[in-house]
Amino acid sequence: MRNELVRMTGARPTWAIGLGAVALLVAGCNQVGTQQLTFWDIVWSMVIFFFWVMVIWIFIAIFGDLFRRTDLSGGAKALWILAIVILPFLGALIYIAMRPKVTAQDVQMMAQAEAAQQAVAQVSTADELAKLKQLKDAGAITDAEYESLKAKVMS
After folding, report:
1. pLDDT attached to residue 94
2. Which of 33, 140, 146, 148 has its Cβ near the most Cβ atoms within 10 Å?
3. Domain ranges of the chain
4. pTM for the full model?
5. Segments in the chain forming alpha helices (H)
6. Which residues are CB-neighbours of 95 under 8 A, at least 6 positions away?
7. CA quadruple 135, 139, 141, 144: dihedral positive or negative?
8. DSSP letter (8 states) at residue 139
C-alpha cells in the first residue's frame, strides 16, 4: 500500500530525504584534499576562518581586560600574560573562570556614570534659557543666535 502511494504521488518518506542529504554531504567531503575545489571545501574553510577569528577576538579581549584592570599588580598581569602565551586555551579558560564578575574598577565606573546622569538630569530647560538670556545680555551671542539656541532648547 505504501509503495503504491509513493509511486502514485511521488512522495518520499522524510528519512529518505535526510539520508539523501547525508549522502550528499559525504560525497562532497570525499573530494577534500584533491586538486578539485568543491563547495564543501569552501564551507569548511569558512567554518575554520570563523573559529580562528573568534579565538583571536577572545585573546584580544582578555589582553585588553588585563591591561585595563587596576586591581591587579604589574606582576600579576605579567603572570596572566605568560600563562595565556604558554598555554593559550587553558590559560584563557582559567582567566575567564577566575575573573570576578564585578571588580572595584567596575563599581567606580558605574558610580561615575550615575553621577554624570544625575548631573545631566538636574539641568532644566528653564536653567538653559536663563543662561542663554545672560549670554545675550552680556553680548556674547547675538539676537539671531539667541533665538536659534532657544529653539533648540525648547525642542
Report:
1. 92
2. 146
3. 1-30, 37-102, 123-154
4. 0.50
5. 2-9, 14-29, 39-68, 74-86, 88-98, 104-122, 125-138, 143-154
6. 62, 66, 80, 83, 84
7. positive
8. T
Residue type, 55: V
Q: Which residues contact 45 (CB under 8 A, 6 or more apart)?
A: none
Residue pointed to by grid coordinates 567606580: 108
Q: Tell how far CA 147 is from the center of its chain.
A: 43
pLDDT of residue 5: 47
CB 149 within 8 A of CB 132: yes
- Which residue is associated with the grid cell 575567564? 96
Compute the mean pLDDT over every residue in the chain, rounded to the nearest whole number. 81
Max distance between CA atoms of the chain, in angstroms, equals 98
Contact between 4 and 15 under an 8 Å Cβ cutoff? The reply is: no
80 exposure class (CB count in 10 Å sphere: 0-12, 13-18, 19+): buried
Q: Cell for 116?
A: 554624570
